[in-house]
DNA sequence: GGACCTCTCTAGAACGTTCTAGAGAACTAG
DNA sequence: CTAGTTCTCTAGAACGTTCTAGAGAGGTCC
């Protein structure tokens, strides 16, 4: 049913020139007259020629291909993919994707990409042991996105999680809050740094006595459950590990008859699509996906092309997005 | 920094055999003695040989590669990817992914895959004009996933959206509801069929007089806005185009002081992660992702391998997932 | 002892590109 | 008119595989 795909040779025969010349035209390389160029392009278009990337790469050695590992469950990874495609296109590189799914682990995803002869590996939120990543980094550049990997051979581009919570606390303090509780993220990557950011900034505001960290987790259920013990004597504000958990918090608070933000202010983290829903309207901390993806791609290309790199780690600043779940503290119950 | 990757020739030289023999061993093809086989494998492992997929495909013509187009914004596409990877692995095929992002349209995504010489194209929720898909289908098998494409050359695997709303209406009627309103999906694919499913089933239950369809859309905001006109004289139940819009509906209802499910029952569509959140606990209609992905892969492979195919379209039945947003109608205001 | 297997292996041509080296034509300069 | 330069083009090798055809070695059968 599907006849053979046209090749360079077909175009060449049809246009009455050599394959080499067609190759030159297709690559937009110098060495062909304007007239021939146009004629060849016309023929190529007419017979529906499309270059075979595999053959091209095989010959040229270079693939200009960046391998990207992402997880299908994380909407945030989708946002990063968007940025990565843009950044790669700007530098005339292409992306090959390999997904981590509930039934397909990161090892498998990476192995698939290596067979594709990509020139660098970008792993979003890597979960492999550091040693495994380091092993791969010995063969080709590896950039970890969004999670810290402590190994000199692996580049890291991540958000300053710590600073994000500084901003959240600053925002709440500026609104007059003093009783600010932090809801933890459990074993999720980033938890420790966000917790530290909260604690440090509370101290810096002289609120040592008010520091209170509740165990939690990354899911909506985690948030809903974690906030329950607070209902008897609620704080005036809560910083939550991420947006999803924050929605659970909002729901529990409202069911308990507490008004947000009138009685309690809530700050999330990630600026996920969820937070932007107008009826949730969640104040949150946005990670700078554009900066992260741009840096990640630039770093990968620098390693590929041998450009010297100053620092292994790039840490991008987060940004507070004030929305409707935070407001001035009305009547602080403890002065 | 990264020395040349070892090739077949390197393994052959090291093991003192021909490249052809190494190829035989690596492919696990007949034609090598057990002893040689083991020796070659040892050498390959020692020097870290990995087959170059591109060269392999270039020569063999076959790529055993299925191209998949998905959108990064849709979490549901992630669920489908999971199933597609599983189904492809079972048939010893591989997937290459190409994403549609806010800045990268479906045309670009498809063009990228065609360069990869995949043997078939699976497009999740295609948005390209039928003619464009048909044009591609002339060259290689194309399977549309989740959206109807009316062209004889394009295979379709989709959910029986119509039937999903039958189930939703049946469920509500069984709970004693009569005043059931449907919230539409705007211009989103699937809207017409879901609306038709609602209307037909209402008629079948003799509820012609109660049929009421409100204009809406696929987002949470759409749902929240669409339900506003109902607040004065609310129905006892609402079927909503999808889960996301349903969350908007829930929020608006609750803010207006209506209890769900005591005053109003709500049914969503998709069984997205959102619906499963325990504090939303949304009754919804689940699409059978496993069946859809299995069929899609089977169909693609059938086309590739020339197996005769009976029907162009595969329609999988949906399934009602009863959760906490539906309950018996208490006091129907109109008998 | 020859004919015919089967088993293991190898040489060498593909696959569709890119790249190197160089050929011919058409100018320009002296 | 010759030498040099530039522009356009081509032949043919390479990339790392797979595949076809066939070569040797050894066995079985009559």
TrEMBL record, chains A, B:
<feature type="domain" description="HTH lacI-type">
    <location>
        <begin position="6"/>
        <end position="60"/>
    </location>
</feature>
<dbReference type="InterPro" id="IPR046335">
    <property type="entry name" value="LacI/GalR-like_sensor"/>
</dbReference>
<keyword id="KW-0805">Transcription regulation</keyword>
<keyword id="KW-0804">Transcription</keyword>
<dbReference type="InterPro" id="IPR010982">
    <property type="entry name" value="Lambda_DNA-bd_dom_sf"/>
</dbReference>
<dbReference type="GO" id="GO:0003677">
    <property type="term" value="F:DNA binding"/>
</dbReference>
<protein>
    <submittedName>
        <fullName>LacI family DNA-binding transcriptional regulator</fullName>
    </submittedName>
</protein>
<dbReference type="Pfam" id="PF00356">
    <property type="entry name" value="LacI"/>
</dbReference>
<dbReference type="Pfam" id="PF13377">
    <property type="entry name" value="Peripla_BP_3"/>
</dbReference>
<dbReference type="InterPro" id="IPR028082">
    <property type="entry name" value="Peripla_BP_I"/>
</dbReference>
<dbReference type="InterPro" id="IPR000843">
    <property type="entry name" value="HTH_LacI"/>
</dbReference>
<keyword id="KW-0238">DNA-binding</keyword>
């Amino acid at each position: 049913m599907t006849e053979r795909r046209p090749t360079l040779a077909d175009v060449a025969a049809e246009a009455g020139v050599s394959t080499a010349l067609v190759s030159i035209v297709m690559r937009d390389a110098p060495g062909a007259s304007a007239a021939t160029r146009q004629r060849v392009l016309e023929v190529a278009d007419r017979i529906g020629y499309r270059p075979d990337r595999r053959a091209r790469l095989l010959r040229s050695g270079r693939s200009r291909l960046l391998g990207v590992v992402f997880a299908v469950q994380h909407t945030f990874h989708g946002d990063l993919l968007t940025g990565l495609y843009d950044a790669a296109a700007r530098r005339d590189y292409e992306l090959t994707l390999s997904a981590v799914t509930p039934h397909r682990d990161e090892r498998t995803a990476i192995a698939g990409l290596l067979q594709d002869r990509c020139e660098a590996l970008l792993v979003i939120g890597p979960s492999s042991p550091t040693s495994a990543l380091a092993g791969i980094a010995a063969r080709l550049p590896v950039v970890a996105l969004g999670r810290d990997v402590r190994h000199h051979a692996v580049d890291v581009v991540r958000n300053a999680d710590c600073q994000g919570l500084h901003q959240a606390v600053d925002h709440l303090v500026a609104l007059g809050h003093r009783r600010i509780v932090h809801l933890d993220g459990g074993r999720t990557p980033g938890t420790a740094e966000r917790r530290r950011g909260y604690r440090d900034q509370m101290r810096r505001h002289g609120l040592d006595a008010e520091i209170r960290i509740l165990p939690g987790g990354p899911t909506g259920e985690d948030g809903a459950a974690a906030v329950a013990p607070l209902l008897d004597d609620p704080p005036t504000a809560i910083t939550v590990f991420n947006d999803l958990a924050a929605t659970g918090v909002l729901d529990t608070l409202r069911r308990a008859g507490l008004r947000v933000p009138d009685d309690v202010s809530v700050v999330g983290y990630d600026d996920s699509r969820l937070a932007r829903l107008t009826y949730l309207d969640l104040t949150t901390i946005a990670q700078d996906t554009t900066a992260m993806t741009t840096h990640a791609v630039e770093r990968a290309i620098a390693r590929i092309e041998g450009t010297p790199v100053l620092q292994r780690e790039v840490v991008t600043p987060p940004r507070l997005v004030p929305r409707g779940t935070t407001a001035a503290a009305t009547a602080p119950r403890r002065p």
